[in-house]
Design goal:
Elements: H1 2-17, H2 39-50, H3 57-68, H4 76-88, H5 92-105, H6 110-128, H7 133-136
Helix pairs in contact: 2-4, 4-5, 4-6
GO cellular component, one term: mitochondrial inner membrane
Pathway: Energy metabolism; oxidative phosphorylation
Keywords: Heme, Iron, Membrane, Metal-binding, Mitochondrion, Mitochondrion inner membrane, Phosphoprotein, Transit peptide, Ubl conjugation
Length: 151
Amino acid sequence: MLKSASGVLANVLKRSLVPAARVSAVPLRRSHDGPVESDEEFDSRYELFFNRKDIDGWEIRKGMNDLCGMDLVPDPRIIKAALHACRRVNDYALAVRFIEACKDKCGPKVNEIYPYIIQEIKPTLTELGIETPEELGYDKPELALENVYDM
């Protein structure tokens, strides 16, 4: 009984001593008001990231994963820097998979964007000895069977 009476007394004193704060529901838009990065700055940032001499395989994968998670197709100069990074850590498979990921990022405009990318990075591919997924035969299923309706 004393416990409940002391609780009620504490609430009454609290309300009387501390004025109620007037809270109004004002819509507040919380947005990113930081500096906006231009396309050139974005490309330079990722190019510098992949051109680091001390980069390791995990960091390369992290950078590539971040790029693949964005709504963009990487610029050819970013792709070139990433391919050089893959060869520095001697990860040929990662280089080929990154080219495949870039092709996938082209979406429905793959026939327009992907040939341009290959055209731009071809000298780098030749220099590093990297073949495209199409040259390796990765664009077709390995054990594809002939359609029974075409026999």
